[in-house]
Specification:
With 220 residues, the protein is α/β, with parallel strands linked by helices. It is built from six helices and nine strands, in the order E-E-E-H-E-E-H-H-H-E-H-E-H-E-E. The mean pLDDT is 94.
């Protein structure tokens, strides 16, 4: 169980006065649940993920994953694929998976399943945006993370490419049963993917509506 209790998250703005990005944000996500968080630009979605993932620890409140601070079992996927351009596709995934024979076998299997078997040794700069996202998805799932944090990972892709990636994400999630916290400004995407959609309202960010979703998910 992921338990998020953020009393307040402040940033010092350039004028020196503190800006409250999140306030009174409480959210619990069950094991294996796919929770989407939607809200307009600037409402605090990325801040929420950064706080949950420990990328931004300066917060009043606390985040617990199975009663402990989230640690190594957390995977991330951001708006940009953030692949290392000087490493091959396979080495980008091994950077997270580790270099044991078992890790390498797992990484190769996953990349092949994602139809990247022909580009294992290619550098990311040679790949299309959709392929780079597939590598980033493989990298996120290769450790079968207990918790996966996703920040608009399919933004600025064309509709068929984004739909294919959404179907692949659903398949990986159903196999790994990771708990997913997925933020997006796209309500349609949230409804397509989530078991649950939490609406954030900004200034400061807090949950204003929390809905269970029972729609069929996208398939490949
Ligand atoms: P969203 O992801 O929903 O677009 P963000 O979490 O990026 O929103 O931002 C929430 C608010 O916090 C915004 O007002 C933004 O300007 C502010 N903010 C985000 N990051 C920083 C930062 N590093 N320093 C100062 N203010 C920030
Ligand atoms: P239409 O306007 O006929 O629905 P689109 O090209 O916008 O056609 O979308 C085709 C299909 O792709 C839709 O039926 C929907 O299932 C899916 N889709 C499109 N955009 C999104 C989105 N942002 N999030 C989730 N699914 C989407």
């Amino acid at each position: 169980m992921l338990e998020i209790d953020i009393d307040r998250k402040r940033y010092a703005d350039r004028g020196g006065s503190p800006h409250v990005a999140l306030s009174g944000l409480n959210l619990q996500v069950g094991d294996g649940e796919f929770a989407c968080v939607v809200g307009p630009s600037g409402c605090g979605k990325s801040t929420l993920l950064n706080v949950v993932g420990g990328l931004d620890g300066d917060v009043e409140g606390r985040v617990r994953l199975d009663g402990e601070a989230p640690g190594n079992g957390v995977g991330f996927m951001f708006q940009e694929p953030r692949l290392m351009p000087w490493l091959s596709v396979l080495d980008n995934v091994l950077l997270v998976a580790g270099r044991s024979a078992a890790a390498k076998a797992r990484a190769v299997d996953l990349l092949v399943a994602m139809e990247l078997g022909d580009v294992l040794q290619a550098y990311p700069g040679r790949l299309s945006g959709g392929m780079q996202r597939r590598v980033a998805l493989a990298r996120a799932f290769v450790i079968e993370p207990k918790l996966l944090l996703m920040d608009e990972p399919f933004v600025s892709l064309d509709v068929p490419t984004a739909n294919r990636l959404r179907a692949m994400l659903v398949e990986l999630w159903q196999r790994c049963r990771s708990t997913v916290l997925f933020v997006t400004h796209d309500l349609r995407e949230a409804l397509a993917l989530g078991d649950r959609v939490c609406f954030l309202s900004g200034a400061p960010g807090r949950v204003v509506l929390d809905l269970a979703v029972t729609l069929p998910r996208p398939r490949a």
